């Protein structure tokens, strides 16, 4: 019903709306709606459901892999200063902290 009157995004969890790609959310919602058909012959098989979900996951994984490759190239191209207390100085990520000087074991 929500999909028919175009208010799907009004009833979804805000985190899904914020983090999910609209295309993926619509595909999952459409798949869910087809699974609710009263006539069993009109419903997708478990194999078909699995294939659709895997296709959605693969498209998301492809995007993540591209981002990782981009980050890897950025890190590999960075200048490393071995005399600096920072692990990755060109990215401004400091490895030193006040915790480094404290004992890691606590006595209770």
UniProtKB/TrEMBL annotation:
Gene Ontology cellular component terms for the protein in this record: plasma membrane
Any one biological process term the GO annotation gives: cell surface receptor signaling pathway
Gene3D superfamilies according to UniProt: Transferase(Phosphotransferase) domain 1
Top-level lineage group: Eukaryota
Coiled-coil intervals, chain numbering: none
UniProt GO molecular function: ATP binding; protein serine/threonine kinase activity
InterPro entries: WAK-like (IPR045274)
Name of the featured protein: Serine-threonine/tyrosine-protein kinase catalytic domain-containing protein
Keyword vocabulary terms for this entry: ATP-binding, Nucleotide-binding
């Amino acid at each position: 019903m929500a999909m028919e009157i175009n208010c799907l995004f009004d009833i979804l969890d805000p985190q899904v709306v914020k983090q999910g790609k609209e295309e993926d959310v619509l595909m999952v919602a459409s798949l869910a709606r087809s699974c609710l058909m009263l006539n069993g012959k009109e419903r997708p098989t478990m194999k078909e459901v699995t294939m659709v979900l895997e296709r959605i996951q693969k498209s998301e994984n492809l995007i993540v892999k591209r981002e990782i490759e981009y980050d890897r190239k950025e890190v590999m191209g960075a200048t490393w200063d071995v005399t600096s207390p920072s692990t990755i100085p060109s990215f401004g990520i400091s490895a030193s902290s006040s915790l480094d000087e404290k004992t890691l074991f606590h006595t209770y």
